[in-house]
Amino acid sequence: MKKKDLSYSINWSKKSLNTRVIHVGGEPDQATGAIMPPIFQTSTYVQKSPGIHSGYEYTRTHNPTRTRLEECLASAENGKYATVTASGLSATMLIMHALPANSTILVGDDVYGGTYRIFNTIFNSLHKFIFVNTTDQKILKQELKKYQPALLWIETPTNPLLKITDLEFAITEAKKYNALVLVDNTFMSPYFQNPLKFGADIILHSMTKYINGHSDVVGGALIVNDQKIHKELFRLQNSIGPCASPFDSWLVLRGIKTLAVRMQRHQENAIKIANFLEKNKKVERVIYPGLESHPQHSVAKKQMSGFGGMITFFLRGGIKESRKFLESVQIFSLAESLGGVESLIEHPAIMTHASIPEKVRTKLGISNNLIRLSVGIEDCDDLISDLKNAFKNCQ
Ligand code: P1T
User: Would you say 108 and 155 are in contact if contact means Cβ atoms under 8 Å apart?
Assistant: First the structure.
């Protein structure tokens, strides 16, 4: 009997994201028909004769499980190529090595603390970094003209202040000087924002967050359309070695299948919680892109298809009240990271953004009463009653 070919014959690019994240890279195993892809937990591959092999030589270079995830992620971002790395920051490292030495890089002023640290303490000996408020169009225009950077690095919404850069404007301006544009799309995930569509050159993800969604993997990804950039990233990944393991790649392939339903629920809960916080007398100010009070709410509506699951707010009081509040929550877990199904809460000044000098943090507004929530997909009433109890405790 002729063996049935189990590979798909569907043009996935015509299907919606919800379908693509489940099926692209997820073809049944040709050998057995297993609906879930096998984990190729191997470091090397046997060759028939020197140089004669099935496309795989060594797992730092290629691994079939990682290849499947790369196909899935490229498709999720409507891009052509993806490189899956061992962490979000190792993806950042690859970009730094891909640029010619002494490049000038214009970076959004409010970025993840680890991104700030890697730029200011590791790659400051290789490149020049200029931090700028990319949400201020006048300043961004001026600085692009002044520095004519090799790369514009945008995180939108930012971590932790959820500032939103107008991608269409920023990319159009950057292109006047032939700058490459990278967008860290970690907070929105491909479900709510697709920066390639606005002309961005490189999308960066900490896969650790929404893409995997289950707080059990640290990983990163770079998605591009340009084959030359992709080839350089592949060369660097292979030469330096920060690749995701087969098992982690498999876990992310599994996690990403539910991206759409998770993101919908994260957002549904976050809207309710943002409204609850905005009415609370113990809260000074709430920052959530979906609130009309958000300074870039109209930009958010224009370029994102939703507002995500991240909220930051300023509690009335200082460090004493913040500590009390953070010690009082029970369903929200006090932990760094975000984007998992379980709700997390943290204190950026002491935790995720501690590596930013206090003076810089204060200037940005990362104060001692700033609290960040990663709203999970639990029952929202339970989450709100958890917050209510914590507010009671910090009187
Ligand atoms: O942790 P890692 O996978 O290396 O990703 C780094 C990173 C990159 N970009 C953004 C926007 C991020 O938020 C992160 C990691 N952030 C946290 C760990 C955090 O709690 O904010």
Answer: yes
CATH number at residue 142: 3.40.640.10
- Our answer on whether the CB atom of 88 is closer than 6 Å to any ligand 1 atom is yes
Q: Is 269 in the pocket of ligand 1 (CB under 6 A)?
A: no
d(CA 52, ligand 1 centre) in Å:
40
pTM over 0.90? The answer is yes
d(CA 134, CA 154): 7
| Atom 6, ligand 1: residue with shortest CA distance | 88
Consecutive 10-residue averages of pLDDT for the chain (395 residues)? 67 94 94 95 98 96 98 98 98 98 98 98 98 98 98 98 98 98 98 98 98 98 98 98 98 98 98 98 98 98 98 97 97 98 98 96 97 98 98 87
* CA 251, 253, 254, 258 torsion-angle sign: positive
Residue finishing a domain among 256, 272, 307: 256
Locate tokens 């498999």: which residue?
A: 250
Is 112 designated active site?
A: yes
DSSP code at position 49 = B
Structural domains in the chain (count): 2
